[in-house]
Amino acid sequence: MNVEHEVSLLVDEIRRLGNKNADGKISVKFGVLFNDDQCANLFEALVGTLKAAKRKKIITFEGELLLQGVHDNVDVMLLQD
Question: What is the pLDDT of residues 45-57, one digit of tens each?
Answer without folding.
Answer: 999 999 999 999 9
